[in-house]
Amino acid sequence: MQNPERRRRVAQAKSTNDPFRIAGVEVAPGERCTIDIPISRLANHTSMSLAAEIFHGREPGPVLFVSAAVHGDEIIGVEIIRRIAQSSQLKRIRGTVMLIPIVNAYGFIANSRYLPDRRDLNRSFPGSATGSLASQLANTFMAEIVGPADYGIDLHSGAVHRSNLPQIRAQIVDKKTKALAAAFGAPVVLNAGLREGSLRQAASDKDCKVIVYEAGEALRFDEKAILIGIKGVFNVMRHLEMIPPSKKIKAAAAPTFSQSSHWLRATTGGVMRCFKSLGQNVAKDEKLATISDPFGENEEIIYAKSDGVIIGRVNLPIVNRGDALFHVASVFNPDATGAKIEALGEKIQDDPLFDGGSVI
After folding, report:
1. Distance CA 133, CA 139 (A)
2. For 15-68, how does the pLDDT look when each residue is reduced to its tens digit (9 = 90+)?
3. Is 286 exposed, middle or buried (0-12, 13-18, 19+ CB in 10 A)?
4. Residue 200's closest CA among 155, 162, 245, 242?
5. How many CB atoms lie within 10 A of CB 275?
6. Per-residue pLDDT tens for 298-347?
């Protein structure tokens, strides 16, 4: 429902754009508006809603949504969106930006990946107005957010006790989607097919191009991953000509594209010692970790199956047989990719986009 006190002007220049309508609310050109889209009520009668911040430019242009916490415990995107919302960059936009920091509010307040019905929201799209709670939330998101959008950036992290290297996942066989993925500027772009029930798949059916940013770990903040995410979102906006180019900000380095990836799993239960970190390159048959019993009498070695770069790994040293340990992306030149990742991590905090820790 519209809250008039949550409206404000972000631009005063003459308008050539039409009003933007969402969930029965009209947002005037040059206006910033926070709206709460009703979803349901909790058992104690507390209202639950989908909160969205709309920045509607005075000039026409693309409609872009940026969403986070589709999985409620993947909170890194919430912080990315919070900082983006405070940036002066959005005062000069062409088109419309929709920021949805917490899609799955149920999981967010419970520190849970799932909804109360134990369903995964990212396997519930496009949803149904009469289905389960997850299905109804997915249906509302599709109707109100994806419906008017041309493009989307969905922000995710690894699961609990699993960290992801900053990366983009996208269906790069689609030229427009591949261009978005490259513009973002993450060190690695992983070609990921559309999965049934996912937001990407449902949005694709509506001709809305969506990329997924994966970085960090559930229930944790990672400052470098946050900064890379913020810069990536603005890189995409510049690519779409929604915000003007900047002479101070260097163009993003070309990412490394990977057509495939695989997980290495524990061959036995025990205590694991890792010898490789996120972003490091690996060679086929290289020793990555050892798993031993608590007395150190029996030990098994985990070897790399192929050349590649580690884009995900488990953080817990206590593992069971079959646990996923390392996520390795196959790349053409692992050494060059590893060097690129290391350089990006060192330079991101000195980027002119960030002034004293704030987004300018």
Report:
1. 10
2. 789 999 999 999 999 999 999 999 999 889 989 999 999 999 999 999 999 999
3. middle
4. 155
5. 13
6. 999 999 999 999 999 999 999 999 999 999 999 877 777 777 777 776 67
β-bridge pairing 151-156 and 188-191: unpaired
pLDDT band at 10 (very low <50, low <70, confident <90, very high): low
354 beta partners: 359
What DSSP string runs through 75-122? -HHHHHHHHHHT-GGGGG-EEEEEEES-S-HHHHHTT-SS-TTS--GG
**Omega cis (within 30) before 334:** no
**Rounded to whole angstroms, how far apart are CA atoms 81 and 121?**
20
For CA atoms 143, 147, 148, 152, the dihedral sign is positive
Tell me whether residue 207 is exposed, middle or buried, using C-beta atoms within 10 angstroms of its C-beta: 0 to 12, 13 to 18, 19 or more.
Answer: exposed
Instruction: Give 40-62 as a 3 state SS string.
Output: EECCCCCEEEEEEEEEECCEEEE
Complete domains list, the chain, with CATH? 2-256 (3.40.630.10), 260-347 (2.40.50.100)
Q: Using alpha carbons, select from 233, 259, 232, 235 the residue that is nearest to residue 246.
A: 235
> Taking a C-beta distance cutoff of 8 angstroms, is the pair 64, 150 a contact?
yes
- DSSP letters, 116-178, are TTS--GGGS-S--TTS-HHHHHHHHHIIIIITT-SEEEEEE---TTEEEEEEEEE-TTSHHHH
The Cα 9–Cα 285 span in angstroms is 59
Q: Which two tokens stand for residue 55?
A: 């920045």
The b/e string for 215-240 (b: 16+ C-beta within 10 A; e otherwise) is bbbbbbebeebbbbbbbbbbbbbbbb
Which amino acid does the sequence have at 275?
Answer: F
Q: Contact at 8 Å (CB) between 120 and 134?
A: yes
Q: CA 237 to CA 95: how far, in whole Å?
A: 10
Q: Which amino acid does the sequence have at 336?
A: A
* DSSP label at residue 278: T
